[in-house]
Amino acid sequence: MKADVDIRRLTVKPLNPAVKPSSRVQVISWLGEAAGQGDISSLLDVLAAYAGASHYMLAREDLFQEPGLSFVITSNWPFDLVKKIGGTLAASQARMSEMEKCLSLLQPQLHVLPDEPCVPKGTDRQYCVLAVCVGNIRFALLLMFPEGGVATIERLREVGLLSGYCASFGIGCDLKVERDIDLTERELECLYWIAEGKTSDEMATILGISRNTINNYITSVMRKTATKTRSEAIAYAVRNNLV
Length: 243
Hints:
This protein is an alpha+beta fold. It has two domains: 7-171, 2-Layer Sandwich (Beta-Lactamase), CATH 3.30.450; 185-239, Winged helix-like DNA-binding domain superfamily/Winged helix DNA-binding domain (Arc Repressor Mutant, subunit A), CATH 1.10.10.10. It has helices at 24-36, 40-51, 79-95, 98-103, 153-171, 185-195, 200-207, 211-225, 230-239; strands at residues 55-60, 72-75, 109-112, 123-134, 137-146. It has a five-stranded antiparallel beta sheet with strand order 2-1-5-4-3. The two termini are 32 Å apart. 33% of the residues are buried.
């Protein structure tokens, strides 16, 4: 599904629990077949079935705060729940530092759905969020399960690894173009040397400019990347393939 959400896709029936790959080899084979057809929804059908999930949603985290539901790539969650969870995800994203975002990659996070709206009958109120990066784009895979059927952490981590493969097909869709990060060449140089563990004095010597100028560049980098410390700036740079 493209960034302009197809409401019909958000209201389809849950997955058929009888159709479930029985092994890792089989799920990889099925994913390969779905990838050959270029159908990301089919990829997510297979992946969710392997996780034992009844509903899935793949979203782009960088679009959480955009108006509407442009963050959704594909989903079979009930429409009202998608609208509700979007605000929750955006708020959660805003509270996380860049370091926390890096550490959360491929780490299953279990949450409880809000009281309203109602969840589909027979669905557990606990759901899982898996974050994965493909290039410099960060995705979130959200899974809902039948009552009492939440997958093990080990299986969810395995699904997280496979979800990166699935999410890579979403980049090829007509999604919003990834925002350019407006850093100058000199700011990128400073970011590189920060990542190498250099101090401001050492960078000043390497680049042949004053310590104050170096600090001004670093301040500018942190302002543009919305980070508060040099460590967070490094984490941001690594996550976005800047160094």
